Amino acid sequence: MPIADAGTDQMQLLVLERRDDARNMARWYVLSIEPTLFGDQALIREWGRTGSARRRLGNPYSNKAAAAEALEAWLARKLRRGYRIRVHG
Questions:
Q1: Residue 4: other Cβ atoms inside 10 A
Q2: Of the four, 10, 30, 32, 58, which is 20 to 30 A from 78 by CA?
């Protein structure tokens, strides 16, 4: 089952973390799909080290399905690199 459901109108957000105390590594990554001012959908990527300034980059797509496909690709890439999905609650 895909994590990014292209049929929903809710903002989709995934928070990922990668920690390795032995290497003094504490990183985070956020993937979200948000509407643009022009009616398109954008895959928004935010990342940084815990306690530092974030970086943010948006990539526009013509529809939500294309943005969801891109989100899935980025998620797979980050999971391969050792990031884990952060679950709240």
A1: 21
A2: 10
